[in-house]
Structures are given as structure tokens and as C-alpha cells.
Design brief:
Its main location: membrane. It holds the Pfam family Glypican. One of its GO terms (cellular component) is extracellular region. Keywords: Cell membrane, Glycoprotein, GPI-anchor, Heparan sulfate, Lipoprotein, Membrane, Proteoglycan, Signal. The protein has one domain. The chain is built from 19 helices and no strands. Helix 1 crosses helix 7, helix 6 packs antiparallel against helix 17 and helix 8 runs antiparallel to helix 16. The chain is rod-shaped and about 110 Å long.
Amino acid sequence: MKETNLDIASVPSEPTYAFNLSVCPVSRLTCCTYEIERQMVNVSHSKMERLVQVQINMIRRFFDDYYNSFLEHLKEALHSNQRQLDEMFSRTYGPFYRRNSKIVSDFYEDIEAFLVSDSSEKSIKAALNKMFRSMYSTIFALMNPLRNVGSSEKECMFHMKPKLKPFGSLPKQVRIHLERSLSAWKSLLYSIREVSQSLNEILQSKLPSNCMPSLVRMNMCHVCVGANPLAKPCAKYCINVLKGCFAEFSEMDTQWNSILAVFNKISNRLKEAYNPNSVLSPIPVQISEGIMLFQENGATLSNRIISRCFQSSIRVARDLSTYETNDIMASLKETPKVHQLKHRYQADNIKRLTDAFIEKLSRLKGFWRSLPQTLCMDGQMATFENDQCWNGKSLNGYQKKVVASGISAQRFNSEFEKPFQLSREKFLDIRIKWLTITHQLESVYDGEIFNQSSYSSNYYEGSAFAELSISPDDEDTIEGSANEIHMTQESLYTG
């Protein structure tokens, strides 16, 4: 017993009969005492809690790291696109753009805020409306420098804007173009963050109280019968005990696998059709086309605005060419290859990152049902040397079959006293959340715009309860072989 981490102050100087042991009862002389047994419970609980936390924290860190990496790449795509626009607009519009560049910089800031904001007020549509609204009044003032545009005049102008359509259909085209891609990216970011928060909630959960006797019997009771203190439980014995202890956890596996599958599905689209670098690439040209359209129709638009919103006589609008603007297409011909190469490099970076994410997602499938195998087979808890392993009573190997996963299967688990109280309600909120996320991402994949409010609503609650209530338990008779998923930190973080 000295080889253990137990406080042996209560251990008698000579083995004796201990009739007050409830977890490790022995009919022979023993050095175990009630105090030693109490310590065993605490040690076993702490050890198991630590091992589970390592596994769950590993997955949570995986999602947190990819959330940060995806967000960093999205921000860089925005910043790169903004730099290209700055360069192109400075060359094309000169002082006019430099004096009013804040209109565009605010737009990019609003898009970045949209990606990370929990507020439904942040949207692509709102960001575009704000930018084109500012451009509308700014370009009008530039073309009509003798007009004093006060608050009442602006209000009148903005009231006319929907009918005038000074930028044509460009705002709508840009909105549709950006919404599908960036909304899909936001849905992935938001969902990854929600899953990470769910994992943190799971970390706070406790194992069933009636699991502890079986856990202590597996981990510690061999010292009470005089066996080698360093002996380990048999692998199949360990798996059976943990199948019972983690039966409630395994009930999450169906929804877990579903959310991994939809992560995979939407990520494949994000890296190709919704690659942010490809989606953002035409934005500078599209915005400039809108400005040029306003310029071409400037006189007509200005006259209509002045006649409606200003009291004094109509003045002829001045063309933007007065301010030494150049033709946008001529400017683009100067350095198209440089932008194309840079865009392709950044797009490839996003693709590589997403490919790595997809590949590592596949290693997480079945995590909750394979958790007992993972913990028992990693060399820390159990051994495959079946002739010299602890079976709960002696070092004679373990002959019982491994039971299936899930709560229903535990009625066949002989390592637990009946009734073994387990509840499907334990992680129900998390399962509903994952099911809701899955539905949302499926909708986004089908082309719907991400609706963040649905994540916190009860929209899917009825169908979620129905789906969860009929989800069948896995009644297979797995033997706990080495073919089960074996998660390690190296396998999750390396290619």
C-alpha cells in the first residue's frame, strides 16, 4: 500500500478483518480501513475527472483554435480587399476618394463586426445601406457644390433614394453576393463557438453517484486483497465499468455525429463557392461601377433631387470628371496580374485551413460512445495482458463480454448493482442545442440566410424532442477492440 498515493496513517500495523468496508469488502485479513476506502473514492473520482477533462478540453481547444484561425483569415481577406480598393480608388478618384475614404473603411469595419457580433442589428444589408446612403449624399454634394445640404434636405434626399436608384441594381447585387457567403461563414463561426461553450458545460457535469463504487472497485480495491498495488484492471473490465459511468454521455453521440457531418458539409462549400477571397474580389469594381452610374446620370438625378428637396432655382450638376477622375477599367488594366496572384494565394490559404478542419472533424466522430475505450486503451487505466490483470476480484483475467453503449444497454452490465439509476434528461439541453445548430446549418447550406435568433429560440424544440425521443440506442455487441476510435492530442492537432 506504500506504493499508492494514499495516506496510510490509518493502516493497522498488522492485517486485520475489516467489517465496515462497503466498496471493497474482503473476507480475508486486509490492511484496508474505512478511512482508506474513503480516500480511494476521492482518488478514483479525481483521477477519472482529470482524464475526462483532458479529453474534452482537447476537443474544445480544437474548436477554439479553428474559430480563431477562421476568423483571422476572414479578417485578413477583408483587410486585403480593402487595401486593394484603397489603391484602386485612390488611383481612379484621387482627392475625392481620399477625402471621403472613411465611408468605405466604415463599411469594412461593419462587415467585420457582423462576423463576430451576437446582435441581429448587424447585417450585410445594414452595412451596405449605410455605405451607399453616405455615398449618395456625398456624391450629390460634390456634384452640386453650391447647394447647402442641411438635415431637412438630406432627409428629403434619402426619402427619394429608393425610387431614384442612383446606383442602379448594384447595391442589391452586392448584398446577395456577400450575404450567402459571409452569412454562411458567420453561421460556422457561431456554431463552432456554441459547440465550444457546450463542451465547457459538459466539463462541469458530474458522473452518476452510483458509478463511484464500481469505479473504485476497478481502480483501487485490488490493494485490499494483497495484489500488486501497481496492477491495472483488464481492458474489457475497464470498458464495461466506464460504459456504465459514461452511459449518459454516450446519449449525446447521435447529435454530436450529426453536427460534425453538417460542419463537414458546409465547410466543403465555404472553401470553394464561398471562399471569402473569391467572393470579396469583385467588390471594389462593383462599388466603383455604382459610383460611375451615379456620375453618368448625375445631371438628371441632381435636377430631380433639387426640384423636390431644395427651394432655390435648379443648377446644372457638375460631372465628376471635373475632379480629374479616370476611367475605372483603364486603371484596372495597369496591374491585374498582381491582384490575381495575391488573391489566389489567399484563397489557397483558406482552402488548406478548411481542408485540415474537415480532416480532423472525421477523427471526432463517435467520440462520446468511444470515450470508455479511449480512456481504457490509452495505457493509463487498463492493460491488455489478460492473464495478469485485475477483474474486480482477482488477477485472473476477465471473461465477460463488453456491453453496448447507451443507457438502455446498461441493464446487461454486470459491473453495476441494480437498479443503476441513469437519466436521458442529463444532457437534453445540449442535445437540443446541437440538433438546432444542425438544422440551422443545413438551412444555410440550402441557401437560406443565417438567422442567429433561431439558435436561442424554441423554433425547433418540438421537433427536437420528437427526434431525440425516438433516437434508437446502439444495441450492437462490440467487443472493445483496437478498431475503436482512439483519440490522442497528436491525432487531433497533426495532419
